[in-house]
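User: C-alpha cells in, sequence out, please.
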C-alpha cells in the first residue's frame, strides 16, 4: 500500500512539473523559422518602416511565405541557418544578427573604405595623441589654431588602467584643446557603444541643455504596441568646449554615434558635415531561439523631437561631402576650412 502511495505521489509531482514547465518546444525546421519570423513581427521596432523601403517584398507576411517554402522537416541545421539569415537580411538592419553554436553567424558587413586614421595622424602635430582609449586628438600642422578629436567608440573602459578611462580622458582632452579657436570632431567609423558613456562625453561639447530624442520599446505585434515615450536630454559639462565645432560623420557612424550627432545638432555652435550616418539608432537586444540559437534585434524606436525617423535612412549633414580617399580626404579638408571660416582665425571657404 505504501509503495502504491509513493508511486502515485511521484506521478502527481511529475504531472505538476510538466504542467508548470510545459512541454518541450517543437524545434522542427518549420517551427524554428516561424518562431523567428514571429519574434521579429512582435518585437522589431521598425518592421513596417523597413519593409516600406524594400522593393521586392510587399510586407513581412510576404517574406514568410517566400522563405517558408524553402523549409521542410528534412532541412539540415546548416541550411536552416542560411535560410533564416537570408530572411533577416531583407531588413538591411545593422543591429540584426543571427548566431549559432555551430560557430555560424550572420550580421551586417561593415566597410572601412576611404577612411584611414593613420593618414590623419600624419596631419597632426607630433602625430597626435592616442594615449587614451577610444580617442585620438591634437592640432593640425597646417592649421594649429584648429583642434581635432577622433572618437572611435562610446565604450566604458574605466575598468582599465586609471589613465585609460574615458571619464578622465575626455576632460583632459577638452582642457588640452581649450586654447584652440575651433574644433573638428570626427566620429566617422564610430560604431556606437554605451548610451551612458555617450551622454557623458557629449556633455563636453554642449553649450546648453536640450531635449534631443524620444525613445520607446516595441512590446507587441500591433503597429502601435510600444511603451510610453521617454525623452533624452543633453546637459552641458562645466568644462564643455563651446567654441565652433565641425562634426564629421559617415555611413559607418552607427547607433550611439548617431544619437551623439542628434544631440550635437541641437547646439548652435555645432555644424554637421561629412556623409549621412548609417541609420541604425535602436539599442541592440539579444534574444534566444527555441532551438538554442540566438539573434540580435532592434527593439527600440528612436525619433527626433519632431517625431522624424532616421532608421534605414541616416542623419544627413548640413553640408554633405562624400569623398574620403586616402591623403585626399575631402571631408576632413572641408571641415578644417569651415572651422577656420566659422572661427575667423584664417583662411577657409564660405559655408553656403
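Assistant: Sequence out:
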Amino acid at each position: 500500500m505504501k509503495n502504491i502511495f509513493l508511486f502515485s505521489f511521484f506521478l502527481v509531482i511529475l504531472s505538476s512539473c510538466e504542467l508548470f514547465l510545459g512541454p518541450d518546444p517543437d524545434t522542427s525546421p518549420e517551427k524554428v523559422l516561424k518562431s523567428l519570423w514571429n519574434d521579429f513581427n512582435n518585437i522589431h521596432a521598425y518592421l513596417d518602416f523597413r519593409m516600406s523601403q524594400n522593393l521586392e517584398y510587399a510586407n513581412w507576411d510576404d517574406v514568410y511565405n517566400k522563405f517558408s517554402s524553402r523549409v521542410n522537416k528534412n532541412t539540415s541545421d546548416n541550411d536552416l541557418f542560411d535560410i533564416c539569415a537570408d530572411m533577416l537580411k531583407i531588413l538591411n538592419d545593422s543591429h540584426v544578427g543571427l548566431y549559432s553554436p555551430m560557430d555560424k553567424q550572420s550580421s551586417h558587413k561593415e566597410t572601412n573604405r576611404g577612411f584611414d586614421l593613420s593618414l590623419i595622424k600624419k596631419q597632426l602635430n607630433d602625430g597626435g595623441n592616442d594615449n587614451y582609449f577610444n580617442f585620438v586628438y591634437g592640432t593640425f600642422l597646417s592649421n594649429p589654431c584648429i583642434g581635432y578629436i577622433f572618437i572611435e567608440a562610446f565604450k566604458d573602459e574605466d575598468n582599465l588602467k586609471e589613465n585609460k578611462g574615458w571619464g578622465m580622458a575626455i576632460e583632459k582632452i577638452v582642457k588640452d584643446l581649450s586654447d584652440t579657436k575651433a574644433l573638428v570632431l570626427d566620429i566617422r567609423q564610430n560604431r556606437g557603444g554605451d548610451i551612458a558613456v555617450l551622454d557623458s562625453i557629449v556633455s563636453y561639447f554642449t553649450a546648453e541643455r536640450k531635449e534631443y530624442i524620444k525613445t520607446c520599446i516595441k512590446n507587441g505585434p500591433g503597429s502601435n504596441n510600444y511603451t510610453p515615450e521617454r525623452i533624452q536630454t543633453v546637459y552641458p559639462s562645466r568644462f564643455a568646449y563651446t567654441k565652433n565645432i565641425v562634426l564629421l560623420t559617415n555611413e559607418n557612424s552607427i547607433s550611439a554615434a548617431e544619437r551623439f550627432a542628434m544631440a550635437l545638432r541641437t547646439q548652435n555652435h555645432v555644424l554637421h558635415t561629412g556623409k549621412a550616418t548609417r541609420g541604425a539608432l535602436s539599442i541592440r537586444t539579444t534574444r534566444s531561439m527555441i532551438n538554442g540559437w540566438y539573434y540580435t534585434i532592434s527593439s527600440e524606436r528612436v525619433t527626433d523631437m519632431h517625431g522624424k525617423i532616421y532608421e534605414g535612412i541616416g542623419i544627413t549633414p548640413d553640408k554633405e561631402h562624400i569623398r574620403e580617399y586616402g591623403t585626399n580626404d575631402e571631408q576632413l579638408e572641408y571641415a578644417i576650412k569651415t572651422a577656420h571660416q566659422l572661427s575667423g582665425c584664417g583662411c577657409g571657404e564660405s559655408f553656403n
